[in-house]
Target: NAD(P)-binding protein
Amino acid sequence: MPEGYDKVKTQAKSAEEHHATTRARLHQIQSQLDNAVRAGKLKGKVCIITGVGSLKGIGRAAALTFAHEGAKHLYLLDYDPTNLPELKTTIEKKYPDVKVTTMKADAADETTVSGVCQQALCEEGRLDVFFANAGIATREHLADTTADTFMNTMRINALSCFLAVKHASAAMLKANPSRGKNFSSGSIIMTASTAGIRSGAGTVDYSASKAAVNSIAQTSAYQLQKTDIRINTICPGLIETGMTSVTFEYARKRGSEGKIGQLNALGRFGIAQEIANAALFLASDDSSYVNGQNIAVDGDYLLLIPLFPVDGLECF
Ligand SMILES: NC(=O)c1ccc[n+]([C@@H]2O[C@H](COP(=O)([O-])OP(=O)(O)OC[C@H]3O[C@@H](n4cnc5c(N)ncnc54)[C@H](O)[C@@H]3O)[C@@H](O)[C@H]2O)c1
Model:
């Protein structure tokens, strides 16, 4: 190995020191919303988010972040209704200026997706942001993956995004000066994955579905040219959420939490708030010239893997 790589390794902190720093850093990021001033980055914006029902999930973190930044009305969907009433109450208590509508709904059902876009237009006269985030992960090896499993993963992960782009863009094309929207505009954000960019980060069906999501963003951004509707994906690395909880619980039981998520330059896993922050950037006018991109939010997982290859799946 070249000398430079040896130097990188010897300069690194000890595993224990790095683990302690990581825990402190994640705690700080986790409590960001408690301390940050409300900057109003989404003031006046009408937003739809799918997959908000999981307590540790990316969708819930995004809903709270969008509310913190003053979104006008949040339409929040999940097919599991268990945690929706609590999420609505939490947002309404903390951010009384934000309207919240929660729905038990399948993000891959066309009537549902077109219906919620229409509802936003009817009630608020505009749609500004659609964060298509709902998704599932699978664990089977190629040999055990059935055609039904493959199609189900494609339906929930990729079809849901296609429907979001199709129906949200139609709604975002509608200007409404009486509601402060003088021209067509909007931001569609989809949660893809590092697995949609490279191999070794997910199952075959999951990775294919996320590659499709990345492609949908690129092609539809081209087709919606000159509309000021932007379409981008976020490609998270390993994030601690409901989806990955089994991996985390297993590692904690074995006392090897410090080893999770080391295959990236930051040497740690991420938390939902870090993906919500990326979604906020894409939803707000701060990203007004960012379009058709697949943005990795993964601690530089994509870069590090080829230098230090390790067997086995590391993330979703
Ligand atoms: N956690 C990770 O490491 C990771 C990495 C890369 C990408 N992602 C992606 O992030 C997104 C969010 O996942 P998460 O990690 O927060 O997982 P999560 O399981 O905590 O949350 C996903 C939520 O989506 C909901 N959902 C699933 N299918 C749905 C459907 N058809 N209609 C409506 N809701 C549905 C679930 O009920 C759940 O509340 C997913 O698209 C996932 O593929 C996650």
